[in-house]
Design goal:
Strand content: under 5%
Distance between the termini: 53 Å
Shape: rod-shaped
Structural class: mainly alpha
Number of domains: 1
Order of helices and strands: HHH
Radius of gyration: 19 Å
Number of strands: 0
Largest sheet: none
């Protein structure tokens, strides 16, 4: 399966790169949103500062 995919990666790199970039940006956005929610809602962090 990976050997047959190598042809697609060499000829049409965007087939792999664009979905990969979309997944990367989605995970990054969810991480940042989770950090923001934790900072806003965690009472222990408010008392420590």
């Amino acid at each position: 399966m990976l050997a047959s995919a190598r042809d697609y990666i060499e000829r049409a790199w965007w087939v792999v790169s664009l979905p990969g970039l979309t997944i990367l940006l989605s995970v990054l956005a969810i991480n940042l949103m989770g950090d923001g929610l934790r900072d806003a809602l965690d009472p222990k962090l408010k008392n420590a500062a």
